[in-house]
Design a protein that fits this description.
about 500 residues; mainly beta; Immunoglobulin-like; Collagenase (Catalytic Domain); 3 domains; seven-stranded mixed sheet; five-stranded mixed sheet; 31 strands; about 30% strand; binds zinc ion
Amino acid sequence: MRSSLFTVLFCTISFAGICQEPAKEELYPCGAPAGVSDFMEKYQKNPWLYAQPESGDTLWVAVQVHLLAKDSGAGRIPWDRLLAAFCRLNQDFAESRIQFYMKEPWNLLNNTGWHTHSTIPQGIDMMMTNNAEGALNAYFVSDPAGNCGYNLPYGGVAVAHGCAGPDDHTWAHEIGHALNLPHPFIGWEGKTYNYNNPTPQVLAYDYTYFHDTLDTQVPAPLDTALVEFVSGANCTVAADRICDTKPDYLSYRWNCNPATQMSSVKQKDPSDVDFYSDGTLFMSYADDACQNRFSAEQISVMRATLANEKADWVTPVMLQQPVTALPAQVEPVMGQSQPVTGARLIWKSVPNATHYVVQASRIPSFGYKELDIVTADTFAVCGSLTANKTYYWRVKPFNYRHACQPFTAAETFFTNPSSRTGEPDADGWRCFPSVISDESVITLETPPSWAGNGIRICVFDMAGKPLFSGETDCREKMQIEISGLPAWPGGTYQLIAVSESGVKRQTLVKQ
Ligand SMILES: [Zn+2]
């Protein structure tokens, strides 16, 4: 931890510009390299040479999530959004009997250049620097090189915040790649299909994008692909080599027809047979609304990958039981009064939950949150709130295998009107802000009666472990720069200032 004490004469307040994250519509669907992997090519020719798990066995696959923020610690994916995406991921893979569990702890990384990276090599650097062994590595970033997501062979998957949520299938799509599934439209990358042109039998496509950067690690890429026929005549050697994914020549994000779940764009194969693309396949570029399945052969490829090439990702047994209950909120409830600083929220544990997301907000929709933390405890302490206001708070239980429980209904409390945040106490003591980020400057105003004394300032975590301590001459106003406070687990700290004239304390909450 790096900390320092210093005084300042002037206070400059700057407002960071509101930074919009790229929305799904602004991003290209996928930046994964085109082609058929070495494993896929060999497996497809001789599947009987490879172990296949028993059909009824569920494969439990370890995922290490890496959650990127900017250097300042801002801009990380909200905890509840990550959990909603994780819930969706396991729902998307339920039919395949492949289920994912998150390794503990989540890896919280602060790096502006990785949080928004404009090139894939920057993502390679991110993954090679941070990948965990024995797990599929998944990186959640604001902008993965202009894509909703990508998979790096032998690296990991990157997913954009804007493409990760309860109704998004980008995470499933990229993991499909990580388990050796190609797109169904190999050869059409970068090309716009035109019905008015004759459909060729063979397409050349550019595989060099990744080949230059991962020269020794990418399986021998193809540079031509056969175009798949509707009849299935060449399905074992054309496009993705998978026969139960029918022809699809659409290599851009397309909207499916909700009535048919097929493309509205009509295509024709090289023998002039008309067809529409299947929008239900996760590996297609159909919009998320239609995607709902992997095909049976795709599932066989993924399960064979896990039984052979990626066996070190698989755990034989389910490690955690599902969370099926919601916690009872003990207090405060029904508008009970709470202090402006240090309001304490308490709930009861529920079976199988190892962690809870806790949120407090002045807005019933929780559109803006004064508190948004993950804790393994059954209580949370708020920082400074606004006096004389109604606050809403709620809890979402989860464990690293199961994150599909919703939040509790919101309970309410009312902040004490007798004190107002931001005003010095009766002695003239004030410490602000109480809600801090990774690198925060905290301002202390000391009581006039402390003048001439030395002052000792300590920051403790909730277990009472000192994280920072320093001494200086007491001044009327001073600032402390605090950085590197561990964000996980728990984000609540106590700042204690001691002089010969007294002791003052302030609860700090790290967002
Ligand atoms: Zn893809």
